[in-house]
Design a protein that fits this description.
By secondary structure, this protein is an alpha+beta fold. Helices cover about 55% and strands about 15% of the residues.
Length: about 475
């Protein structure tokens, strides 16, 4: 498949349409809010955790430094000379002598008060970073992969002991290597966003599943009244909405059933007076007048029967069945040919479809009758179109003006090409019959003349049995 063909293939078109429409859907907005919310929450939580770890480390670092400062002070109290010698010769890990040029200016008041409290006499602390604490290393040459960043910061401690002797020394802090190991870095942010997006899509899909079922049921109900109640499950709010929708569907069905019963009763009640009227018309002596009155009465009776047929067409309770479409079309053409009608089956499609057989047969019968009436013949065919099944009944008649193609389905409407004594209800009944199994009936003019009536059955009802004929 070429790149151009792939670009315009049905699968690519559906994908592009999905990507275009999904952000504007409720599921897309819910997924976006959840994804951004979860990603932001995770990032903020990691940042807060990172800051908390730093704060705890600083607290423990300071506590350890106070222990070191107090320990050196106690050593000076026990063995002043030995402690000074050990510091001068760098024999104490974590403590060393003060450089001669260091001065106690700008001491940290909080740290100084804490050390004073621990020692029991005034003491001062001044903080230095590692570059000041270990300035001697900066004069040295570094290996390519080494620097002094990993060396610790330090405290300069000064106090005068009880004997009046000034003590000065330096204690090292714990190295803060976490400064170079942030919890929230670029790869973590990317992973958090991706995980948030996936979780958002999953959560939106789960949340929208009941609403999608209701949307599909509403769409199916708009095409056919013979619906199945939606299973009531999910959160309480969704269950309440589904129950309400099922009740609304049942009420609509009741209204249609009552309408059909009323029309049936009216039709039945009209039969007796119409029959009496016909008998009385037979007594009219003027033969020409009698024939006209009888013809008008016959039209009236036909209108009543057709009206009842139209009302009943959407209320037929017929079981579903999977049938072979080629066999149905072939049989329809053969049955019509037996009565001398010019009906041919031209192109098969090699598929089966889940439909209501009697409803499909009646719709095809009405379309074939119309094709013969206005075109003199009928051509039956079927093919696949983007997965859907299209059943076509075509004729070679005059066709219809474009503005009348939609009006043709209106009951009792006489079109420009109408002739004979028909009631103009055949297409309306065929359309109602098609809707009972979820199909759509449309009309279009053929390029070389004539009219084409197409019954489109959705892909979900189609099952392939062989190589399509078209």
């Amino acid at each position: 498949m070429t790149s151009s063909a792939a670009k315009h293939s049905p699968r690519w078109r559906r994908l592009l349409r999905f990507l275009r429409d999904y952000p504007r859907s409720l599921a897309g907005r819910l997924a976006l809010v959840l994804a951004l919310g979860m990603a932001a929450s995770a990032i903020l939580a990691l940042e807060a955790s990172d800051r908390l770890q730093r704060a705890n480390f600083r607290k423990e670092q300071a506590a350890a430094a106070f222990r070191s400062a107090t320990d050196i002070a106690e050593r000076f109290d026990r063995d002043p000379l030995g402690t000074k010698t050990a510091l001068d010769e760098n024999l104490v890990l974590g403590a060393h002598p003060v450089k001669s040029d260091w001065r106690m200016s700008g001491a940290n008041p909080e740290l100084s008060r804490e050390l004073t409290s621990r020692l029991g006499f005034p003491a001062q602390i001044k903080t230095f970073d590692n570059r000041t604490c270990f300035a001697q290393f900066q004069r040295n040459r570094y290996a390519a992969g080494m620097n002094i960043d990993a060396l610790p910061d330090c405290w300069f401690v000064r106090y005068v002991d009880k004997a009046g002797t000034e003590r000065r020394y330096v204690v090292d802090l714990w190295p803060d290597r976490s400064f170079y190991q942030h919890n929230v870095g670029h790869p973590y942010v990317v992973l958090i966003i991706i995980a948030g997006a996936l979780l958002g899509l999953l959560a939106a899909s789960l949340a929208m599943a009941p609403l999608r079922r209701m949307e599909k049921s509403a769409r199916a109900f708009s095409l056919e009244v013979d619906f199945e109640p939606i299973p009531v499950k999910g959160p309480s709010e969704v269950r309440a909405a589904l129950e309400t929708f099922n009740i609304a569907q049942e009420r609509v069905r009741e209204v249609i059933r009552e309408r059909t019963q009323i029309l049936a009763s009216v039709t039945h009640d009209l039969q007796t007076p119409l029959t009496r009227l016909r008998l009385r018309l037979e007594q009219v002596e003027d033969e020409v007048l009698r024939d006209r009155l009888v013809a008008d009465l016959a039209v009236t009776q036909q209108l009543v029967r057709d009206g009842l047929d139209l009302a009943r067409s959407s209320e037929i309770r017929e079981p579903w069945a999977v049938i072979d479409i080629d066999s149905v079309l072939s049989s329809a053409a053969e049955d019509a040919a037996e009565f001398g009608h010019r009906v041919v089956f031209t192109t098969g499609c090699g598929v089966q479809a889940r439909v209501k057989p009697n409803a499909l047969g009646r719709a095809l019968g009405n379309l074939v009758d119309n094709a013969q009436k206005y075109g003199g013949s009928a051509e039956l065919s079927c093919w696949r179109d983007n997965g859907d099944l299209v059943i076509c009944v075509a004729d070679r008649g005059p066709g219809l003006p474009d503005y009348e193609l939609e009006q043709a389905f209106q009951p009792f409407r006489r079109l420009s090409s109408s002739k004979g004594s028909g009631t103009g209800i055949g297409l309306a009944i065929a359309q109602a019959q098609a809707k009972t199994f979820g199909a759509i009936l449309t009309l279009r003019n053929r390029k070389n003349g004539g009219l084409s009536a197409e019954i489109r059955i959705p892909v979900k009802s189609v099952r392939t049995t062989g190589q399509a004929g078209r």
